[in-house]
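FIELD: query
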Amino acid sequence: MAQTLKLEIFKIAIKPRNSREDFVDFNNLFESIDEDKDQAYQKFFSDFIDLFGGKFKSDQKKTKGICTTNQNKGTIRSINNVIDIEMWGGTIGSLQLIFNQDNADEEIGKIGLNEIASLPFYIKLWTPFDHSSGILMVQSYTDHTVSNLVKIIFREFIKSYGFTLNFSSFTPEAIKEEYLKNSHVYEIKMITDKVSRGKRALINPLFADEQDLKITVTVSGFKHDVNDFWRNIKGYGANKVIGANLDDLDMSEEAGYNIKAYYKDENGHLANVGIKNIYDISPTIFLPEEIMSGDTRHFDYEKIKRHTDRILEQIKIEIGYN
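FIELD: result
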């Protein structure tokens, strides 16, 4: 199966280091770099490239590395408070052998312990001068992501200017609504990790002293429209969901439990929610085939830039940014 392109979105905010104040508008950061806005963005971008010094920075476990240089694509649009960055990233720390996929008998090369098989990754950073909420977008692949490392490096980079950077995962409402419209509920789980000693012993004496015991009851093999499912289930307790008495598992209104529902859309993409907020989903954001380069199956830089610009415009409306 070919790699597909995905997108992770994070809401970002800054405050002066060691400050107990609320988050501040991003002009505080850039005006500390240069009084001229365009020059401040240019300096920010060049400082970020210089941070790598032409070398890959790795995570703490030395399993992934990323880098960007002047050879990578990049766009500074200070008038829009946007920076687009292309980075290289991949796995490190283990010897890999290279074969032609049609011939597993003949090795044609090696990727050594200090070498990296890299892929291009796309980053979009929106830092509005007159707002305290910004956006970081990190593109990834089906089996390859560098988002955690990107966040670590950006946090350290912003710290060098005297600010603390905070992240929170973010899914635009339009993407949630589109997913819900095209998905169904296919599984539900009732979960408890508060099982009394007596109930643990009742299940099996072997578990009597296991204080961290967790019980999950799974119901699957069905397919229901999301709205219809919750219309029939909403307000019911765990016993009502499956019509069985689960008191022996300490699943009751008094003992407490969690209920999770699992969604799948028409393309097989998965998401899950808790019963307390049945529409608060965070489905994986898949990028369209149209932004791929046919030769490499990587992103086309200009196409992904335009596509994420459109997503950013939706986000601005959602957060009330004019």
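FIELD: remark
Residues 78 and 133 are 16 Å apart (CA to CA).
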